[in-house]
């Protein structure tokens, strides 16, 4: 069985699609997240506290051709009466080589993970940060509950929002998203959780639900997972509709029996856990809001030499000019305002990101590649191989009499193109007007 490794990376997605920092001068803050999991001892649970300190709030100083910052981090756990349960003090040092990055232009943050043991109950975690160089102070707090996992026949941990999943060796590395605002994740996200089984269920159905108060506004399809072991780890992909209004929501991870009715309700839950999330969107950008990403995404329409030429100027403005000139050459209606080829291509990129994301962004997957170059297939057929249990999806393009087979070798929805139906890397997108 593959297991997940929780990692703290020095960069988390704290910026919008337009690469604008979430943190502004008049809203300085440190982000925190508190998640509970079943502990290794019968009476206690494990609490993971993540704190993200954005670079733009730190004072960096130059030394030895590098930029450095220092800050003290104090994390305090208090019970429901306000009494201090435990406290940790940590000194953090941050080193950066790029001046613009140190100023927060890319939304980077220094992230820490601190692990506590706690008994069941209600808690408040408080984070207090002091910048050692300029003595500026920042603080944040949030409440959370630690369930009595050992008293339940079946339970699920706190749901963790994950912004990235990477396969490594015989396991996976996951990057927690230290932000309640999912409006910054237009391509969707994963929800990771652990399941704890006493009654030895073999398989259960799981889903993620969103509630606006008591009203359900979104849910994923039910997905079956094997839960034979006492502890299993699962994740579910969530694509929140872009039409979801801004506001606060409750995200629930729920488990039901495989025999539960199609329109199940709360009385059918075998277990559930929840957390609060927020949807806050900035000014909507176009496909070229992040010019460098848009240039990278030209790989299915441009040659590598063309991409290198567009990327070569050091000035973002000049890169944008070359990018626009490239698409002007492909404009099927140059005498009109619209560029239909440009619109169709990036609409396909957007569709791939929303529908084919796996361990990479959707446009980087095999399915995303073929969808961007050829468009949607005429038919899509999904089958499970009775010999080895692997799932395959076959795409057929009736107009060109072409067929492509994708196989999920890992069981986690990571479909790879079968060698039996190769796709030539030299083939590029062409606007057809269809």
Plain-language structure description:
There is one protein chain. The protein is mainly β. It folds into 3 domains: 1-151, Sandwich (Immunoglobulin-like), CATH 2.60.40.10; 186-284, Sandwich (Immunoglobulin-like); 291-417, no CATH class. It contains 6 helices and 23 strands. The chain has helices spanning 99-102, 291-296, 304-311, 316-329, 340-355, 366-374; strands at 4-6, 31-38, 45-54, 61-63, 66-79, 84-96, 109-118, 121-131, 137-146, 154-156, 160-168, 171-176, 189-197, 203-212, 215-219, 223-226, 231-238, 247-256, 269-279, 379-384, 391-397, 402-408, 415-417. Strands 1, 10, 11, 12, 13 and 17 form a 6-stranded mixed sheet that branches. Strands 4, 5, 6, 8 and 9 form a 5-stranded antiparallel sheet that branches. Strands 14, 15, 16, 18 and 19 form a 5-stranded antiparallel sheet that branches. Strand 4 (61-63) and strand 5 form a beta hairpin.
Topology, please?
Elements: E1 4-6, E2 31-38, E3 45-54, E4 61-63, E5 66-79, E6 84-96, H1 99-102, E7 109-118, E8 121-131, E9 137-146, E10 154-156, E11 160-168, E12 171-176, E13 189-197, E14 203-212, E15 215-219, E16 223-226, E17 231-238, E18 247-256, E19 269-279, H2 291-296, H3 304-311, H4 316-329, H5 340-355, H6 366-374, E20 379-384, E21 391-397, E22 402-408, E23 415-417
Parallel strand pairs: 1-12
Antiparallel strand pairs: 2-3, 3-7, 4-5, 5-6, 5-8, 8-9, 10-13, 11-12, 11-13, 13-17, 14-15, 14-16, 14-18, 18-19, 20-21, 21-22, 22-23
Helix pairs in contact: 3-4, 5-6
């Amino acid at each position: 069985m593959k297991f997940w490794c929780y990692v703290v990376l020095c960069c988390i997605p704290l910026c919008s699609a337009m690469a604008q920092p979430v943190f502004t001068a008049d809203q300085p803050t440190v982000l925190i997240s508190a998640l509970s999991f079943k502990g290794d001892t019968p009476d206690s649970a494990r609490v993971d506290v993540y704190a993200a300190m954005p670079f733009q709030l730190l004072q960096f100083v130059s030394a030895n051709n590098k930029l450095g910052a220092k800050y003290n981090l104090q994390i305090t756990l208090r019970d429901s009466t306000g009494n201090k349960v435990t406290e940790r003090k940590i000194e953090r040092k941050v080193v950066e080589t790029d001046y613009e990055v140190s100023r927060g232009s890319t939304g980077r943050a220094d992230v820490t993970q601190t692990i506590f043991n706690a008994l069941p109950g209600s808690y408040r975690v408080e984070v207090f940060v002091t910048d050692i160089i300029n003595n500026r102070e920042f603080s944040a707090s949030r409440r959370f509950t630690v369930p009595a996992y050992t008293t339940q026949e079946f339970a699920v941990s706190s749901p963790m929002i994950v912004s990235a999943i990477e396969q490594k060796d015989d396991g996976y590395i996951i990057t927690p998203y230290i932000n309640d605002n999912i409006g910054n994740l237009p391509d969707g996200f994963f929800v990771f959780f652990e399941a704890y089984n006493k009654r030895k269920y073999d398989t259960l159905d799981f889903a993620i639900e969103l509630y606006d108060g008591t009203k359900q506004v979104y849910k994923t399809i039910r997905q079956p997972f094997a839960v034979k072991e006492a502890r299993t780890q699962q994740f579910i992909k969530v694509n929140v509709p872009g039409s979801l209004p801004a506001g606060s929501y409750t995200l629930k991870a729920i488990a039901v029996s495989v025999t539960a009715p199609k329109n199940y309700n709360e009385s059918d839950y075998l277990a559930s856990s929840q957390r609060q999330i927020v949807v806050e969107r900035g000014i909507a950008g176009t496909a070229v809001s992040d010019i460098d990403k848009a240039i990278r995404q030209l790989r299915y329409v441009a040659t590598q030499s063309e991409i290198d030429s567009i990327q070569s100027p050091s000035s973002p403005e000049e890169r944008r000019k070359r990018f626009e000139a490239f698409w002007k050459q492909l404009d099927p209606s140059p005498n009109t305002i619209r560029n239909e080829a440009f619109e169709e291509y990036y609409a396909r990129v957007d569709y791939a990101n929303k529908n084919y994301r796996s361990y990479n962004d959707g446009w980087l997957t095999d399915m995303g590649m073929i969808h961007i170059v050829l468009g949607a297939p005429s038919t899509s057929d999904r089958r499970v191989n009775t010999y080895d249990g692997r799932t395959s999806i076959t795409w057929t393009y009736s107009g060109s009499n072409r067929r492509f087979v994708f196989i999920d070798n890992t069981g986690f929805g990571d479909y790879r193109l079968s060698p039996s139906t190769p796709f030539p890397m030299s083939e590029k997108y062409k606007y057809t007007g269809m």
